[in-house]
Amino acid sequence: MAQNKKLISAIVPCYNEEEAIPFFYEEITRVAAQMESVDFEFIFIDDGSSDKTLEVLREYAQKDARVRYVSFSRNFGKEAAMYAGLEASKGDYVAIMDADLQDPPSLLPEMLGYIENEGYDSVSTRRSNRKGEPPIRSLFARIFYGIINKISKVKMTPGARDFSLMKRRVVDAILSLPEYNRFTKGIFNWVGFKVKWLSYDNIQRVAGKTKWSFWKLFKYSIECIVAFSTAPLALASFFGFLFCFIALIGILVIIIRHFAGVASAAGCASTLCVVLFVGGVQLFCTGILGTYISKTYLETKSRPLYITAETEKDLEENKEENKTEEKEQQQ
Ligand code: UDP
Ligand code: MG
Prior knowledge:
By secondary structure, the protein is an alpha/beta fold. It is 54% helix and 16% strand. Strands 7-5-6-4-1-2-3-8 form an eight-stranded mixed β-sheet, sandwiched between helices. The chain is elongated and about 110 Å long. The structure holds uridine-5'-diphosphate (UDP) and magnesium ion (MG). Uridine-5'-diphosphate binds next to strand 1 and helix 3.
């Protein structure tokens, strides 16, 4: 019956996670042992780590045939890592999870239940709270979700995590979007399908440090807005219209004052302020335009999302090479 078992590919992006991986491996193998109806493969993506992540992964790959890894030539970001994992996955179902156990593997049986028994195509997760997070980060997150959900047709769920389990069909749909500026949470929603949402309390990472600085998150949110909405582009037209309107009223006021015999308002300072203000708005709008153009520019280059430096296959090849070398030496 073994060949009838479905395969789950667990994709784990890792950036400097040498401390967290052993905890993760222990937990995922424990859960995998409980889920007897399915087989597992664990695909770790080493996103150009500068610590011993790759060594740790090599070690696990040698010990456990279910462990596979893809090591990038440099840090390409979590989005690229997830894409690489999806591309490498062979499973009937694919799970994406963080290496720091903030996405508890113990939820997998429940998630699989929704897909296998209740007809869902994928199960996504969201944090029900942001316990333990700096308040300023939560505030900006709230503002971000408020804005993006107003200006984008694709709805973003506040607190949504990348942790999800999906059918092969959904994976193929996600892979069919090869865009360079990726915002996976938005892409998940964009592809549609029947999605079950699960909530769970925020969990602190098991070891190591978060890789997301405030600035990185800020850039990521701009990426999302540019990728899923063109509303900011309309701002330029809006400001243009507004200032034309204000200027028209100003002209009318000056003409009326002239004929009424009231001296025209003098004031070099006020004129300067208006000129500066309008100049500022123009530059702001040009900046928005520039952001979209730069993203378009990057897309047209169609550079690959990541470069692979090593996979578990290289490890096997090296082993075979070493063996033949040893044999030759013995002879
Ligand atoms: N990560 C990655 N590349 C990066 C940044 C992060 O692969 O450039 C991985 C990281 O190793 C972890 C996951 O993405 O498995 C989530 O990162 P982290 O836990 O630092 O983010 P947080 O949970 O604090 O939002
Ligand atoms: Mg984390």
